UniProtKB/TrEMBL annotation:
Domain N-acetyltransferase: 19-148
Name used for this protein in its record: GNAT family N-acetyltransferase
Database matches in PROSITE patterns: GNAT
Lineage of the organism: Bacteria, Bacillati, Bacillota, Bacilli, Bacillales
A Pfam family of this chain: Acetyltransf_10
Gene3D superfamilies in UniProt: 3.40.630.30
Organism: Cytobacillus stercorigallinarum
Domain of life: Bacteria
């Protein structure tokens, strides 16, 4: 089990390696090639995503192996390098976002991504809506997590 990873704030020097594993992970998850080329994807990360969301990385020996883009109420992206999935990295990123949340988080995942559905449901997220309003044109599920008030008082 890999233990020497850490969560850091995203820096542009990690753009290429982050987008590379992000694209591969997404393709494996949904069975569809990324619709944007690498240059467009890097631009999206550096100039759009980072303007609207906090982006944090999991790095192992200075190599990004996980990423999350979030704000106090939404997770926009969460991907773990396919070679490091199932090791608790995605869960650590999710917990990281929960601690920086307002006590409620929403996110979308594709309906074809059964692994992600199982992951989020196992972390306390509940299905709240269905839609297909995304660039990929795939059916998606909206999830929501709400901090349990009883845990706050125990």
């Amino acid at each position: 089990m890999v233990k020497d990873w850490r969560i850091i704030a995203y820096e542009k020097k990690y753009a290429l390696s982050t987008v590379s594993f992000w694209r591969e992970s997404k393709e494996v998850a949904i069975g569809q090639k990324e619709i944007h080329n690498m240059t467009e994807h890097i631009y999206f990360l550096n100039h759009m995503l980072t303007k609207q969301f906090r982006v944090d990385l999991v790095v192992l020996d200075e190599t990004p192996i996980g990423m999350i883009a979030y704000n106090e109420s939404e997770i926009n992206q969460l991907y773990v390098h396919i070679a490091y999935q199932g090791l608790g990295i995605g869960g650590a990123l999710l917990e990281h976002a929960k601690t920086h949340s307002c006590g409620r988080l929403r996110l979308y995942t594709f309906e074809v991504n059964k692994k992600a559905q199982q992951f989020y449901e196992g972390k306390g997220f509940k299905k709240i809506a269905f839609n297909s309003d995304n660039e990929e044109g795939l059916p998606a599920i909206e999830y929501e997590w709400v901090r349990c008030l009883s845990r706050l008082f125990s």
